[in-house]
């Protein structure tokens, strides 16, 4: 990142590396300091939701790179279905990048929890194999 960026701001929950705070603290400090033409958010859905809410407040165009559950990668299964601007989209074929201000993150996070029990069972089985 440093090779291709003028500045890299690292935020950690406990301040053990970079600055202590949320990603939104770092984003807001840049927005308050200079004109921001675009924000790109990639990471956990809850983080992208709050980055999107923040940048919407400041009217900064924002792209979210979504990482929903994908089963077949063709859009046939519908596992990666999200609502964007009130329309149904499939992350695997229509994305994964979308206008973050149009993504229904609450619906997306609810859908991402659909296989939570299976994911936990698979992780337990994997951990016990070691």
Question: How does this structure look, described?
Answer:
This protein is of the alpha/beta class and 130 residues long. The protein has one domain (35-129). Helix content is 38%, strand content 18%. The chain is built from five helices and seven strands. The strands form three sheets. A three-stranded mixed sheet has the order 3-4-7, covered by helices on one side. A two-stranded parallel sheet has the order 1-2. A hairpin with a 2-residue loop joins β5 and β6. α1 packs parallel to α2. The protein starts with 10 loop residues before the first strand and ends with a helix. The model has no long low-confidence stretch (mean pLDDT 94).
SSE blueprint and pairings:
Blueprint (H helix, E strand, L loop, with lengths): L10 E2 L6 E2 L2 H11 L5 E4 L2 H13 L4 E4 L15 E4 L2 E4 H4 L2 E3 L5 H8 L3 H14 L1
Q: Tell me, what's the shape?
A: globular
Kindly state the percentage of residues in helix. 25-40%
Low-pLDDT sequence parts:
none
How large is the share of residues in beta strands?
15-25%
Count of helices? Answer: 5
| Nearest-integer average pLDDT | 94
Structural class of the secondary elements? Answer: alpha/beta
Which strands sit side by side, in order, in the main sheet? Answer: 3-4-7
Multimeric organization: single chain
- In N-to-C order, the SSE pattern is EEHEHEEEHEHH
Secondary structure tally: strands: 7
Task: Report the C-alpha radius of gyration, rounded.
Answer: 17 Å
Q: What distance separates the N and C termini?
A: 34 Å
Largest sheet, if any? Answer: 3 strands, mixed
Summed up, the domain count is 1
